Amino acid sequence: MTRQAVAAGVSALALLAGAPAIAEIKIGATLAVTGPAAFLGDPEAKTLEMLVEELNANGGIDGEEVELVLYDDGGDPNKARTFATRLIEEDEVVAVIGGSTTGATMAMAPLFADYEIPFISLAGAVVIIDPVQEYVFKTPHTDRMACEKIFADITARGLTKVGMISGTGGFGASMREQCLDVAGAAGVEIVADETYGPNDSDMTPQLTNIAGTDGVEAVVNPGFGQGPAVVTRNYAQLGLEMPFYQSHGVASDEFIKLAGDAAEGVRLPATPLLIPDQLAEDDVQRQPVQDYIAAYEAAYGEKPSTFGGYAYDAFHLLTHAIREAGAEDPAAIRDAIEAIEGHAGVTGVYSFTPEDHMGLDLSAFRILEIKDGGWTPVEQ
Amino acid sequence: MSELLQFLISGVTVGAIYAAIALGFTLIYNASGVVNFAQGEFVVIGGMTAAALIAAGVPVILAAPIAVVAGTLVGILLYRLAIRPAGQAPLVTLIIITIGASIFLRGAMQAVFDKQIHRYDGFSGDAPLRVGGATILPQSLWIVGGSIAVFAFLAWFLNRTRAGRGIKATASNRMAAALVGINTGRAMNLSFALSAGIGALAGVLATPVTFTSYDVGVLMALKGFSATMLGGVGSPLGALAGGLLIGLIEALTAGYISSDYKDAAAFIVILLVLFLRPQGLFGARIVERV
Amino acid sequence: MAGQGTTTDVAPAGTGRREYSKSEGAGRRRIGPGLRTFLIFVALVALGALIFPSSYFYRVGTLVWINTLAVTGIVVLLGYVGLVSLGHAGFFAIGAYVTAIGPNYGIPSPLAMAGGVALAGLLALIVGRPILKLSGYYLAIATLGLGMLIWMVLSKEAWLTGGPDGMVVSGMNARNLFKMVGLSLKSAEAWYWVAGLVAAIGAAIAVNLAGSPSGRALRAIHDSDVAARSLGVDVAKAKSRAFVISAIYAAVAGALLALANGYITPDTGGFMHSVEMVTMAVLGGAASVYGALVGALILTALPQVLTVFADYEHMVLGGIMVLTMILMRRGLVPFIADLWNRRKS
C-alpha cells in the first residue's frame, strides 16, 4: 500500500468526498444554510443552486460544466474555516463564494491569501474589505454605508437627534458601531443607544427609554432576523410617531409580513430588488432585477430576498471573471474580478479597483418607505 | 410612573412565557426526575404547527388545539423512544439524551416545516390597550391568562386527582409507588404528554408576540430551565414565580440599568439565589439522583 | 443486546477506566501509566500524519486533538468526580480570548496564552467553592449561568473582543516552532503536531492524576460525598481542585484553537459548545482519556461526513446522541472494552 492508496482510502471511506470529477469548473461555497443566520444562507444557497443549473442548461462557461460544491457552516466560523480548507484542498475549487456572516468570512479570509484563491463574501461588515485583502471581495453594501444613507435621509428631513436600538447579534452590533462612528460626520447626534438580544420578544422597555429621552427626533434599528419586526410592532404598540428607520438587514417582503400594519411608514436603505416594477426603463439594474425575480419565483415559488441577491451578484461577477480569465489559474480569476467595471447587478453597479473590493457606492442604496404593505422609493 | 408600568407589563408578558415553559419542566421533573432539555422544542412545535395551519386557512380556534395535540403526541413519542429505554440512567446521561432529542427534533422541524420566521395575528387582534399611560397587547393577556390557567390546573391536578397524585408518588419513590398499585408507567406517560402539551400551548399563545422559527427552542429551553431552577425544581409555584421573576428582572434591567446586560442580570440573580439558597426559591431539599 | 447488563447497574464511571487499563496491562510494570498513555497518543498523532493526504485532513485532525484536550478536562471533572458542568466553554473562551487580546497590548503570544490559562484557573478557583456546593441540576444551571455570563461579556465588550463578529488573533505560527529545530512544515501540519503533542501531555497528566492519592480521593467522591468525607477526604477542596484542573484544560485548548484558527468568536464560549464538550466526553466514555479522544474524534469528524446529507445532519447527530446513551450508557470505549473482554474470556 502506498501512501496515496491509503490516503485515497481514507478520503473515500472516512469522508465520502464528493462525486468523481469529470472535467468541469468547480466553484465552492460555504454558507449558513441552517442556524441562526439561516435566513441569509438559505436564499443564498437556493440562488447559487438555481444559477448553476441555469448556467449548465445553457452550456456552462465556454462549453465547460460548472459544479457547485456547497457546504453548510451553520454560521459557525470554526466550521466555515474547516469547510474552506476542504473546498480548496479536497474539492480543488477555483473560487469560493460565501461566508453568510462576518464571523465566518473573517475566519476563512486568511486561507484565500495563503492558497491564492479568489473569495467573494456575502457578509456585510466593513472590516471584510477595509483594509483590503488581496483575494477577498464582497458583494453587499457595508453597514457603514447603510448608516450614511439613513443619516443622510434623516438630515434631509431637517432632523438631527437620533435614538438607536440595535440587535446584539453580529449584524446589529457591527452596524451600531459604524453608525456611532459616522454620526458626527453625517451631522446627526446619537442621543439614545439601546440594545436587545436577537431572540428577545419584547423591546418596549428600551423603546420607552428612547421615547423618554429629551429631543429624540428619529429612531434607527440596526439588526436582522425577527428582532426588528418585534421592535417595529412594539414601536406601534407604544404609539411612537417619530420617523423610524430599519436597516438593509430586513429589506424583504418577509419583514412587512411579520411586522404587519406596524411597518407602515418605516424607511430603510435597500437594493432595487424590492421595487422591480418601479425602476425606470433605462435603469441598468432593471434587467438583472427582473431576470432574477422571474427565475427565482419559477424555481422556488417565492420571492427572492435581498440576501439571495448578494449571491446572485457574486455568482455573476465570478462567472464573468472566469469567462475572461479561464478556469485554469485562480490568481488570474482574481485579477479579472478586480478589473470588472460597471457590472450591473441586482444589488448595485459594481466597479472594482485594487483599493475597493466591494465596488459599490452610495447610489446603489435606495431609501424605500413602506406604504400600503409595499415598497415605495423616497424621492430625494 | 407610566414608564415603570410599561416595564412591568413587558416583564410580566415575557415572564409568563418563561413560566409556561418552566411549568412543563416541572411536571416532567416531578414524575421522572428528568429535566427535559427538549422542552423548548415543544414550544416550537406548537407555534410552527399553528402557524402552518393558520397560513393554510384553518381558523385559529381549530389550529390551536391541533397544534397542542401535535405537541402532546411528540411528547409521548419522546418518552417512549428516548426516555423510557434509558431506564434509571445517571443525570448526565439524561441531560445528553434530552439534548440529543432536542437537536433531533430541531432537524425534523427544519425538514417538516421550513427555516422561515413565522407569526400569526393575535387571538383578539393586535390593537394595543391603553392602561394608565402604558400599553399592553391583548395577546399578552392571553399569555398571562394561559400561564395562570396552566399553573392552576397543575396545582389542582397534582394534588386533587388520582392520576396527579400517582405522578407525585412516582416521583418520590417509583418502586414504592408501584408496590401500592400505582401504574408508574402510565404516570410517566401522562406527565410527558401533559408537559409537551403545556409547552405546545405556550408556543401557540406566544407566537403572535414572540414569533417562532425552527431553531428558537434552545433559547426557550434555556430560559425555562433558568426559571425552573430559580423557583426550585419540582414546584409549580416555583416555576410560575421563577418565570415571572426572570421576565421582570430582564425588563427592569433593560429599562433602568442597561439593555446590554439584561440577560446577564437574570443569570447573576440565579447564581446569587443558588449560593444563598441552593434549592431555589420554592424548592424542597432534593434527593440527588446519581 | 450487550446493553442489557448495564441497564440496572449504575456503576460509577471509574470502573470503565480500570477495566480498560486491565485489558492492556502487559507493559504496565515497566513504564508508568502516564508515560504509556503519552506514547499511545503520540503514536496516534504520528499515524494521522502518516496517512493524511492534505492540509484539510490536518485541519480536522488539529480540531480533534484540541477537542480531545478540552474534553480530557471534562473527563477529570465528570468521569473522575461525577460533576456536570454546562459552562466549560466559558473557560475555553477565556483561554482563547486572552491569547487573542494579549498581542494587541504588546504581550507576546506565549505569555498571553499562559495568562489566559491562569485567568481561567483563577476564576474557577474563585467561583468553584460556592458553585460546587450545589449538586445535580442545580450545579448544571449554576455552571451554565457562569458560562453564559462569560459569553455575554465577550460578545458585548466589542472594544476589547471585537463583539459578536469576533476578532483576529495575531501572534505566533506553529510553523516557526518547528523551524527552530530545523523542520520545515506546512502551517496546518505544524498545528496538528502541536495540538496532538499537547493533547498527549494532557492525557498523560490526567492518567497520572487518576492513579495518584488525590485521584483516588476524587473517585471516592464520585461514589459518595459522605463516604469520601468519612475516609478523611476534604470534599470541598478536592472538588474545587478538579474544577480548576478541568478549567485549565479547557483554557489551554481554547488558546490553541485561537492560535491555530487565527480568528476567534464568542460562540466558542457559548452554551452549545459547552454541551458539545460534555457530549463528546459522555459519548466516548467519560471515565477515560481514550473516551475523550473517541468522543472528540466522532463529533468532530461527523459533521464532515454528514455534509452529503446536510439537510438531515441535525437529525442524524441528535439520533446518534440518543441511541448511544441508551445502548451504551458508559460510552463507546468502555462498551467496546467490555465486548473485547467478554470475547477473550
TrEMBL record, chain A:
Listed GO biological process terms: amino acid transport
Keywords, ordered alphabetically:
Amino-acid transport, Signal, Transport
Q: Tell me the leader sequence span.
A: 1-23
The record's annotation in Pfam families points to: Peripla_BP_6 (PF13458)
InterPro entries to which the protein is assigned, alphabetical: BCAA_transport, Leu-bd, Leu_Ile_Val-bd, Peripla_BP_I
Domain of life per record:
Bacteria
Domain Leucine-binding protein stretches: 24-371
Similarity annotation: Belongs to the leucine-binding protein family.
Name the chain's protein.
Amino acid/amide ABC transporter substrate-binding protein, HAAT family
Organism annotation = Limimaricola pyoseonensis
From TrEMBL, chain B:
Topologically, how does it sit relative to the membrane? Multi-pass membrane protein
Please provide the record's keywords in A-Z order. Amino-acid transport, Cell membrane, Membrane, Transmembrane, Transmembrane helix, Transport
Cell location: Cell membrane
Example GO CC term: the record gives: plasma membrane
A GO BP annotation: amino acid transport
**GO molecular function annotation:** transmembrane transporter activity
The primary location reported for this protein is: membrane
Stretches that traverse the bilayer:
7-29, 49-79, 91-113, 140-158, 192-214, 234-257, 264-287
Tell me if ATP-binding is a UniProt keyword of this record: no
Family recorded in the similarity comment: Belongs to the binding-protein-dependent transport system permease family. LivHM subfamily.
- Would you tell me the protein name for this molecule? Amino acid/amide ABC transporter membrane protein 1, HAAT family
TrEMBL record, chain C:
InterPro entries in the record, alphabetically? Answer: ABC_transp_permease, LivM-like
Q: How does it sit in the membrane?
A: Multi-pass membrane protein
Matches recorded under Pfam families:
BPD_transp_2
TM stretches of this protein? 38-58, 64-82, 111-128, 135-154, 190-210, 242-265, 277-302, 314-337
CDD domains named among the record's database cross-references: TM_PBP1_LivM_like
Tell me if Repeat is a UniProt keyword of this record.
no
Annotated GO molecular function terms are: branched-chain amino acid transmembrane transporter activity
Record's protein name: Amino acid/amide ABC transporter membrane protein 2, HAAT family
This protein's species is: Limimaricola pyoseonensis
Q: What does the organism's lineage look like at the top?
A: Bacteria, Pseudomonadati, Pseudomonadota, Alphaproteobacteria, Rhodobacterales
